[in-house]
Known about the structure:
The complex is a heterodimer. By secondary structure, chain A is mainly α. Chain A has helices spanning 2-17, 20-53, 59-69, 74-85, 100-124, 129-136, 141-151, 153-168, 172-178, 188-197, 201-227. Helix content of chain A is 76%, strand content 0%. By secondary structure, chain B is an alpha+beta fold. Chain B is globular and about 75 Å long. In chain B, 39% of the residues are buried. The interface between A and B is medium-sized, with 18 and 24 residues.
Amino acid sequence: MGLIWQGLIEAVRLLLSGDPGVLAITWLSIKISGIATALSLVLGIPAGMALALTRFPGRGFLVAVVNTGMGLPPVVVGLFVSIFLWRSGPFGIWELLYTPIAIVIAQFVIAAPIVTGLTIAAMQQLNPRLRLQFIALGASRWQMLLLLMREARLPLLAAVMAGFGGVISEVGASMMVGGNLLGHTRVLTTATVLETGKGNFEVAIALSVILLALTFSVNYLLTWIQQRGRAS
Amino acid sequence: MTAPILEGRELRVSYGGQPTLDIPQVEVREGEVLAVIGPNGAGKSTLLRVLGLLEAPAAGTVYYRGQPVLPSGREGLAIRRRFASVFQEPLLCDATVRANAGLGLWLRGTPAAEAAGGVQAWLERLGIAHLGDRQARTLSGGEAQRTSLARAFAVRPEVLLLDEPFSALDPPTRAELLTLLQALLRDEGCTTLFVTHDREEALRLGDRIAVVAEGGVAQIGPPGEVFGRPASAAVARFVGVETILPGRVLTDRDGLLTVQVEGAEIQAVGSLAVGTEVLACLRPEDLTLKRPWGENHKDSARNHLMGLVADVIPLGAQVRVELDCGVRLISLVTKQSAEEMEVRPGAVMGVTFKATAVHLIPR
């Protein structure tokens, strides 16, 4: 128990003193996971809408692939992204392995199916007749899609939360493709793993408290946006 | 003659290989309310969607003011924006009543300041101005449908498409909204395509009535004509003719025909050749029940039959009586007279109807 207590005290001290190393790691985590989530939204929302709103041969197969992807183990993603970015791999020429971009790519691969899958679910829970109603009110195709997104904004925000939550907290892929290089690719999760391994529990606890606080703040903000107007 | 505002020619629609609609020609004329009635699944709503440029037919063409148009593309969108629709479900957005009522204007790019005035005016005319800031999901069914109507009227449509707008409402709300809609249509004079399965709604609102049955237009014309002189047994049944008797014209005396139906001879007015096979149609409200040995046996009705009461079904203020006179006849009488005449199953009753009340459809 003493260990945990000491760890918590150290964590508070690290947080309050604004340790530059810890701040840098935190900021890098936010940047990498934020960019990866944003990219997954750019792909996942249109893809999810297309899969939910259209019918074409092979659609069922694609939805099954997306649903499988929602549970993709980060280490598997890390492995394949590593292979692709390896010096002798197909994209080795770009020398991306062990860079923040490599982590963004891996996290994008993890988040995109989550966002896509939840977008499909969000669209399918809307009344299917809404589309006809919007068209009948004079909506163009783009206006109709925009209105559907607006109608599904609450579950879509849940998709954003799940996507961000999935990548900010994963460790396997970041470790494998980023290499946990201090000041370069070390993020909150990989740093926590390292400090725990070294027996620096107080630092590890501090890092995990920051991680928890970060996830909580982002989710609190999104939940607040989501629930605003729900009160009435 | 000017071109009709909407016209469909050689329209064909099929779902899953099943033909749903097959209509050689149908038109909606400028300024009229065309009520489309017919049983469920007859293709009424499909017809509305095709004419309203919401669905492309498998074959055939829709003309807007004489010009062929497709639902897709810029032109289709531009013309669709002259229409507005109200469906059975109000289908409102998760937003305030005011925002919902203004949605059509927003989609058309109407400046917000300009739209606000119009929306407010329509909220007031539909009696929901006090609900303007309420979230649409908190509305009752009637309030939601009023919002949907405000949303449609706010764009000042050239053509209003109404697809069973009152079917999901409780009877008092429905009656209220029907009266309101009647007044709005009269004031606005906008061309309306009104789909309903309710005869009374069609009679109240329709300038013309189209009966759609089995994917085709079985009859189209003024209400009096469709209800009084149905063109087929299917139309007759749908417009409330409850007695349809197969028979044959026996004699013709200056237009007064004697028709042999199974078990009886009845007299009808018409111009059909002797020997023509016919269906004799009788509306239940045209049949008068009498006490069999009653005092006032003399009246102008040409047809007097006697029979046994087979069934008595109370319908609120009225009673539906099924009589077996060798032929089955259905009559509607007021509850009061049914009680006075002691109409009950097994009782012997007389029934009279005028020769003009019999409508003959050649078979």
